[in-house]
Write a structure and sequence with these properties.
Structural class: alpha+beta
Strand order of the largest sheet: 4-3-19-18-16-5-14-15-17
Number of helices: 8
CATH topology of the largest domain: QueA-like
Helix content: 10-25%
Length: 386
């Protein structure tokens, strides 16, 4: 499928090339600050619900601009036979590793970002300012004891990311499962680091393809029992794979959204999923995306293929924000997202496709969630936009 997607997309955009990627020029100036909201810190969920499906569900009816406060299992009340539910089955890697710089013995932490090839990764290093090409890092095990695993810094890019070649092991990807820590986001605080509960709960029950450094969190609420009930209700269930990386959670530093550049993220669409989506679209059936990552895959592929899906791998830099149009997705299940994040901007675009009013509707919904004491972010509650 090759490199896909551009930086922005609007209904009447002017097609243009950028770095060899398909893109659309946004005709209006949308500010990052427009997507700010105030959140009491105590509403940031520090742990998952006691059971996955015990989350709350805020239902947003886009046409009537009305809201309902429900529980997550009530999702089934809004699904109907013939719907197609598409989720992201990427599996979170234990992507945080700790070690020391050989020579100085200075402590160092790395976060895996993107795999280049066998034992070859782009990573974030902390502290990383004084790290240069040739620096050697020896990694520690879960209890802090040194291991045979080393990393050699090959290069450093202008964004401060380091290219690291792992040495002393035949297959780094197999070893990382025993050495790495669950890469919880920084707003989840752990005095002793991530727990075994985090390792299982910061992962969807249908995770299959290792490669993400953050969870596709909208899927964390599903249990095998709920998935079985959904299929028994006549809803078709299919998966795409998008490996969540910096493109999803990197902060927007530009004042205007048109100046923000998304990092590329790898995805794959199966023959089964592309066939199912195309059939649903041809027959007027709803395609319901589980999470913003699923939206970006579906809309990225459709953008490049005249509204249809084709199977295969690709990369996306798609950045959706008001007044973007959506070719595939007709309903969205998502979590509550950080202020001024690309995820909040995507949800705002989906709340009113092709219009600018989605931001106001979403911020009103978030205000309701704050008033009703919903739990926010990765381990928090869910929202369904119909």
């Amino acid at each position: 499928m090759g490199d896909t997607v551009g930086q922005t997309i609007v209904p009447h955009g002017q097609r243009s090339g950028r770095n060899g990627l398909t893109s659309y020029t946004l005709l209006s100036d949308v500010r990052t600050a427009d997507f700010h909201y105030d959140l009491p810190p105590e509403l940031i969920a520090q742990s998952p619900a006691l059971a996955r499906d015990q989350s709350r569900l805020l239902v947003v009816h886009r046409d009537s601009k009305s809201f309902e406060h429900r529980r997550f299992p009530d999702l089934l009340d809004y699904l109907r036979p013939g719907d197609l539910l598409v989720a992201n089955d990427s599996k979170v890697l234990p992507a945080r590793l700790r070690g020391v710089k050989l020579g100085t013995q200075g402590a160092i932490e790395i976060l895996l970002v993107e795999e280049n090839g066998p034992n070859d990764w782009w990573v974030l290093l902390r502290p990383g300012k004084r790290v240069r090409a040739g620096t050697l890092i020896q990694f520690n095990g879960p209890q802090g004891s040194p291991t045979n695993l080393r990393g050699r810094v090959l290069a450093k890019n202008d964004q401060g990311h380091c290219r690291l070649l792992f040495e002393g092991v035949r297959d780094f990807n197999a070893l990382v499962e025993s050495l790495g820590e669950t890469p919880l986001p920084p707003y989840i605080e752990r005095a002793q680091g991530p727990s075994e509960t985090d390792r299982s709960r910061y992962q969807t029950v249908y995770a299959r393809a290792p490669g993400s450094v953050a969870a596709p969190t909208a899927g964390l609420h599903f249990t095998p029992a709920i998935l079985s009930r959904i299929e028994a209700q006549g809803v078709e269930l299919r998966y795409v794979t998008l490996h969540v990386g910096l493109g999803t959670f990197a902060p927007v530093k530009a004042e205007l959204l048109r100046d923000h550049v998304m990092h590329p993220e790898r995805f794959e669409v199966s023959v089964e999923t592309s066939t199912a989506v195309n059939s649903a679209l041809e027959n007027g059936r709803r395609v319901i995306a589980v999470g913003t990552t699923s939206v970006r895959v579906l809309e990225s592929v459709a953008l490049e293929n005249r509204g249809r899906l084709v199977p295969g791998p690709g990369k996306t830099r798609l950045f959706l924000y008001p007044p973007a149009e959506f070719r595939v997705v007709s309903a969205l299940l998502t979590n509550f997202h950080l202020p001024e994040s690309t995820l909040l901007m995507l949800v705002s675009a989906f709340a009113a496709p092709g219009q600018k009013g989605g931001r106001e509707l979403v911020l009103e919904a978030y205000g309701q969630a704050v008033k009703e004491r919903y739990r926010f972010f990765s381990y928090g509650d869910a929202m369904l936009l119909l």
